[in-house]
Amino acid sequence: MTRMAERPVDTNASHATDTDVLMAGFGGQGMLLAGKVLAQASMEIGKEVSWLPSYGPEMRGGTANVIVCIASTPIGSPLIESPRGLIVMNLPSLEKFGPKVKPGGVIVINTSLVDRDAHRDDCVVIKVDARDLAQKAGSARAANFVMLGAYVGAMDVVPAEAIEYAIEEEFAGDKAKFIASSVAAFRAGYDAGRQFRRS
Amino acid sequence: MAKVLMKGNEALGEAAIRAGCVHFFGYPITPQTEVPEYLVKRLPEVGGVFVQAESEVASIHMVYGAAGVGIKCLTSSSSPGISLMAEGMSYLAACELPCVIINIMRAGPGLGGILPSQSDYFQATRGHGHGDYQLIVLAPSSVQEAVDLMMLAFELAETYRNPVMVCADGMIGQMMEPVEFPGAGRGAPFKDNDWALTGKKGRTRRIVNSLFLAPEALHQHNIHLKEKYDRVHANEKRWKLDDGGAPYDLLLVAFGTMARICKTAMDDVRKDGVRVALFRPITLNPFPTEACRAAMDAMPAAGRVLTIEMNMGQMVHDVKYAAEGSREVGFYGTAGGIVPSPDQVAEQIRATVGRTCVV
Predict the structure, then answer these.
(1) CA quadruple A111, A117, A120, A124: dihedral sign
(2) Which of A83, A137, B33, B197 is 20 to 30 A away from residue A34, measured at CA?
(3) pLDDT by residue (tens digit) across B130-150?
């Protein structure tokens, strides 16, 4: 397996903040996969990570979520009651988790499916038309990577190149046909999220 | 080897192969199904055998057969399935056959639920099958430790010719974390031994048997087993004490997932000046009684002990046994698959030391 070390990326201090993000949507919308890519990329730049999925008795179309923790020291609880970041693909996820986000946190909302406000004046709220951007990038199915891109663009938790590399790794082999559209979707989301980056 | 991001269940499967396991027998059950799912792909690649049995009862007896002929083998299940294996574990221990059993605990009793729990502590350390026997029980609190303890499990199984249980909960099984595996490829088989049934040609006959109808012979067999368990208790206790290098007035005792949550809660309350330490047993059997007691004795006279578990109070009995009445031992726990949050644990800590949160 090729490793990150072969493709040096910027691992400077701007990615030094410990953080956690809850990513939620319907089963099949790819939040668990997007979370895995975030965890993989963060691991590759030398971070401690944990990826904890919900695993209730769910079915296709049910809700699915994952908590990704990223830190520079070993992670204690991988279970986070009040996450610092929230990415929601659908309305039930926003209603369930929106109120739990830590004050000062960031909420990324998929406006293709959510026509409601977060009602959190104490958080940075980023609205992204994920399906539209994903379609323009080549595949509506890559909406999950648009959302991940918006989060990473705003929060700068990991360099964009590390995410792109993790996407390539994830889809290596017979799924390679998904790489181009997924990376393009991530980039589109990243550019949208970047405008919200705190200096 | 570089770190890879892996689910606990899958990492346990890979670690078994690195430890030299070549046979797996099991039956699917949430939340451990990724163990067989991983091994059904991996074992044939390393020349191993994977059998999905018709039940957990069959799985454990296939382990009995394979271990009897000297094969390094494994089975895996979750709480209700482990109950079904109980009889087989008794036979394996009686015949002194080395093997490893994974229990990815879910909430009980009965069919219960599928979410994480630690409600099989009694079962793992006291219960399961009938008769005077013990398993060695190892409890990981991270995916990396699950890998390390899996390697150790096969080692201890071989050293003591005894079944070893790796006892984790659904959270460790389902979670992904970076892991590093020792070695490469399939590990070594059991060393030359004098017990495996390999065909008597050129040597005296061997018998794997747990039936002793003569009371004196069975008594002697029990004494022999007891001597072995005594050696295990003398040599294999493992634990971790996290006192942050400072004195403490409250000692938390927790294992597995719960210990990690305690860690985060401790980081929180230490900011308010609460002096707290965590004692984490890694071997649930043998329980590190003396070390636990020493961690209590390191506190001032007013120091208190709080055991936190994802059950209704099981390990707390071993903690009380360690305390021998020298300290008040409190308990906090949740059941049903509800994992206490770090905030809830922090609240318990503050309530125990009699301080309120300073904001």
Answers:
(1) positive
(2) B33
(3) 999 999 999 999 999 999 999
Q: What angle do CA B314, B318, B320 make, to 5 degrees?
A: 105
List CB contacts (< 8 A) between B260 and chain A: 75-78
Q: How far apart are the first and last CA of chain A?
A: 36
Chain A partners within 8 Å of B178 (Cβ): 43, 48-49
Q: Which pair of structure tokens corresponds to residue A129? A: 């038309």
Q: Is the link from the previous residue into B44 a cis peptide, with omega within 30 of 0? A: no
* Nearest-angstrom CA–CA distance, B35 and B18: 14
Please answer yes or no on whether A49 and B171 come within 8 Å at the CB atom: no
Q: What angle do CA A108, A113, A116 make, to 5 degrees?
A: 70
Interchain proximity A78–B31, CB inside 8 Å = no
The tens digit of pLDDT for each residue in B119-132 reads 999 999 997 899 99
- List the B239-242 sheet strands across, edge first: B239-242, B276-281, B250-253, B304-309, B329-333
Mean pLDDT of B249-275: 96
- Give the pLDDT confidence score for residue B179 in this predicted structure: 97
Task: List C-alpha distances in Å: B348 to B260, B333, B341, B357.
Answer: 15, 10, 11, 11
Contact status of A71 with chain B (Cβ, < 8 Å): no
pLDDT at B354: 81
Taking the C-alpha atoms of residue B319 and residue B249, their distance in angstroms, rounded to an integer, is: 17
ipTM of this complex prediction, to 2 decimal places: 0.93
Whether the predicted pLDDT of A2 surpasses 60: no
Q: Nearest by CB to A43, which of B3, B174, B267?
A: B3
Contact A36 B265 (CB under 8 A): no
pLDDT at A60: 63
CB-CB neighbors (< 8 A) of A1 in chain B: 2, 4
Sign of the torsion formed by the C-alpha atoms of B192, B195, B196 and B201: positive
Phi, psi (deg, nearest 5) at residue B136: -85, 130
> Which one-letter DSSP state was computed for residue B314?
S
pLDDT at A8 over 70: no
- The token pair at B76 is 């895996």
Minimum-distance CB partner of A79 among B114, B267, B341: B341
Please provide residue B163's backbone torsions phi and psi, each rounded to the nearest 5 degrees. Answer: -65, 140
Tokens standing for residue B337:
């698959």
Is residue A146 within 8 Å of A25, Cβ to Cβ?
Answer: no
A79: contact with B, CB 8 A cutoff? yes
Structural element, H or E, at residue B347: helix B342-353
**Interchain CB contact of A39 with B (< 8 Å):** yes
Count of A-B CB contacts under 8 Å: 67
